[in-house]
Amino acid sequence: MYGGYYRGDYNPGCIMICLKTYQELEKRIENCEIDIFAIDNKTQNDEIVKEHKNGLNINFFPARAGVSLLNSIFSKYDALVIGGDVVWSEYYEKEGKIFFLDSGSFLATEKPLVLFNCVHRFNSVKTKENLFINIEKRSRYIAVRTDFFKNELNKIGVSNVKAIPDPVLDLELKKVNKKVSKKPLIGISVSLKLCDPLISVLKHSDLSKFDVCFYPYSRQYDNHITVMKMRSVFGDKFSYILEYKDPVETFEMIAGFDISVNDTYHGTIAALIQNIPFVCINTEPPISSRITHLLKPFKLENRIVSIYPEPGESDIETSNRCFQEFNALISDPPRVDNDQLKEVKKLIQKHFDDMAGIIKNGSPE
Question: Which residue numbers delimit the Polysaccharide pyruvyl transferase domain (predicted)?
Fold first, then answer.
């Protein structure tokens, strides 16, 4: 069961986590039947709606029905694997209580087994202690995505927590053959909220030695509106892809760029795992940033464009710093090769071994 946002969103990162988890658990648990559920925060319907996407049969359930489904349909399973991504956000405390097991009757049961698969939260857990302590009491396995969040849970007495690299870092994708072109191709996708600042940066950046293509990465962040605004400003100076692609196709498209510029966590991962040089525009709070945790194993956590002001920095100073960081990284973008990923992949494989062991035997293998 994963978060996503709404039916038809098909957030690439959420789909890829789901795909990876499905593949790894199916591989490890013989004769298992796995059903996939995703929350729909927008629907006015009361029914579960089935769709097929990237080889996955997904059951979209209405957010408001989550707790009643937890006590009915979901209680009939042998195990519930919940996450990953930001299913423990403050938003879901109201609209997705199912992710917090927020049901007294469910918390009083012993079955099904509950496992949390690399979840995350940006906000403090203070004043929410009972919610997370109840989760720990009812769960057999909790994996989170950053050491920061693990430490935050430890502070309130939730001790049975592991910090695990994002499962998508171990995703196997087919090899994409790049087109031969005269100039290196930069692929850019940013959310609507960063559109105007990026326009300002690009107007004052010399990209004459590159071809530049804008594309929509995620429906959730209105990327297609960004693409249209870029086209209205820059016209035929750059190229544009207006239509969203399926998540797997989006990852494969990123593999075709010579440099990837993206402001999302999984958009950065898409480039990283395919050995594509990348420029990451980090929009997450520095202290709880998934990006920082993601890049630390490769010693690249400082090679990003951070939109958050540094201590004592004015708005103009922040803008100037971001401009300088962007241009420096475009000239020399970081990349990660397969050898650098080996240790991270081992941790992810151990994570799936442990989850499968609990589901099969009641304890890790």
Answer: 11-283
Non-local (6+) Cβ contacts of 31 within 8 A are none
Q: Tokens standing for 189?
A: 């996708």
First to last CA, the chain: 23
**In what helix (H) or strand (E) does residue 268 lie, and over which residues does it extend?**
helix 265-272
Nearest to 343 by CA among 278, 293, 297: 297
* Interatomic CA distance for residues 143 and 164, integer angstroms: 6
Map tokens 């579960």 to a residue.
Answer: 48
DSSP string covering 306-321: E-SPPTT--HHHHHHH
Using CA of residue 136, residue 94, residue 190, residue 303, what is the dihedral sign?
negative
Q: What is the pLDDT of residues 78-131, one digit of tens each?
A: 999 999 889 999 989 988 899 999 999 999 999 999 999 999 999 889 899 999
Phi and psi at 270, nearest 5°, equal -55, -40
Return the pLDDT at 324.
96
Residue 365: the pLDDT is 47
Whole-number pLDDT of residue 363: 52
CB 223 within 8 A of CB 249: no
What b/e readout covers 192-211, taking b as 16+ CB neighbours within 10 angstroms? eebbebbeebbeeeeeeebb
Confidence (pLDDT) at 5: 81
pLDDT under 70: residue ranges of the chain: 363-365
Give all domains of the chain, ordered by start, each with its CATH number.
12-170+343-362 (3.40.50), 185-334 (3.40.50.2000)
Q: Running DSSP on this structure, what letter comes out for residue 2?
A: B
